[in-house]
Specification:
The protein has a 3-stranded antiparallel sheet. By secondary structure, it is mainly α. It starts with a helix and ends with a helix. The radius of gyration is 19 Å and the shape is globular. The chain has 2 domains: 5-218, Glycosyltransferase (Alpha/alpha barrel); 244-340, no CATH class. It contains 13 helices and 5 strands.
Length: 340
């Protein structure tokens, strides 16, 4: 549910801004009213790591998809906050619930650790119970210089950076804190590169394995940091990390974020008229053409309702066999480009 919530923000605000006669404002209000209470119900205590969100129906937390959701939630608020009216405060409440938890994981003692999960997925997946009834010992997981996890660290950096923009005016002190932490986490991800698959094993796999390496998360984190003040360093870093590589993604998810990086950099060409970023604008347009129905370059096929995305190459199988609603994010990226 937490991963899907960003879709509601994008969809409702976008349609409301376009003058759609349906009452999307009320729907947005109800969604934002519902969301924080659902998240608070799953509150568990792990010493200093209180908060966050459980995965599905189990009492286990995975910070990799949580950070992705927080990035998308903040990103939607940054881009569409102007159309949210009084609901912007409710959105900030939801974002802060996520970033407060991620902030704790990045600053908890002992130092030089980044906490990225809690609970035993192999046990918890077998036992669905109310969080209020859960009394088992909670195992916590972390990455460090000798147990790297650049994917999750890069995405946490992106989430905190995006949120710092949301709170730039609403709470400048908090904005500075999370941006400062984001830069430290990103520096760690960059300096100690490696997959958290190897570092944490069954604590994250197969539930939330990183299947395509950490380069996309590093690029995404750098792209968000590039949007902050005094960020020339990150522009150069984006080039050094290989952002110019000719990648042609047709998917966008909690694991594969190359399209997200491309859309973020294309924004500069479209809004700032920076010709140095025209390549990303073209790549973003190619991505849109691959996910649009009836496009001659489309590599996807939708159901009649448009809810699920299928891969023509493998027939009737959903692109990935689980959580296919997440691919609504690809369509939302398309809507974002049309508004720009």
């Amino acid at each position: 549910m937490f991963r899907f919530f960003f879709f509601i923000i994008f969809f409702l605000v976008n349609n409301n801004a376009e003058g759609n006669p349906d009452n999307y404002s009320e729907a947005l209000e109800k969604s934002l009213l519902f969301f924080p209470h659902v998240v608070k119900i799953v509150l568990l205590s792990h010493g200093d790591l209180t908060g966050g969100c459980n995965d599905a129906g189990e009492n286990v937390k995975f910070n990799f998809p949580t950070a992705f959701t927080a990035t998308m939630f903040s990103g939607s608020t940054v881009e569409y906050g102007w159309g949210m009216g009084s609901q912007i405060q409710e959105a900030q409440v939801g974002i802060r619930w996520a970033t407060d938890y991620l902030l704790k994981g990045a600053t908890a003692t002992p130092p030089a650790r980044l906490y990225v999960g809690a609970g035993d997925p192999n046990v918890d997946h077998k036992c669905w119970e109310r969080p209020e009834d859960m009394d088992a010992v909670r195992t916590v997981y972390w990455v460090s210089h000798d147990k790297p996890g650049s994917e999750v660290a890069g995405e946490i950096a992106a989430a905190l950076t995006a949120a710092s923009i949301v709170f730039h005016r609403a709470d400048p002190a908090y904005s500075r804190i999370i941006l400062r932490t984001a830069k430290k986490v990103f520096k760690f991800a960059l300096k100690y590169q490696g997959s958290y698959n190897s570092s944490l094993g069954s604590a994250v796999c197969p539930s939330y394995c990183s299947y395509n390496g950490c380069k996309d998360e590093l690029l995404r984190g750098a792209a968000w940091l590039f949007r902050t003040p005094n960020s020339i360093y990150y522009n150069k870093l984006i080039k050094n990390l290989g952002a110019d590589d000719q990648l042609e993604p047709d998917i966008f998810s909690w694991d594969n974020k190359y399209a997200g990086k491309t859309i973020k950099l294309a924004r500069r060409a479209l809004l700032n008229h920076d010709e140095n970023f025209d390549q990303y604008r073209q790549e973003a347009e190619n991505f849109v053409c691959k996910i649009l129905p009836n496009s001659p370059n489309s590599t996807t096929q939708y159901t009649k309702g448009g809810g699920n995305i299928y891969d023509k190459k493998i027939g009737a199988n959903i692109k990935l066999p689980q959580s296919n609603l997440q691919y609504a994010g690809s369509t939302i990226q398309q809507n974002y480009l049309t508004i720009l």
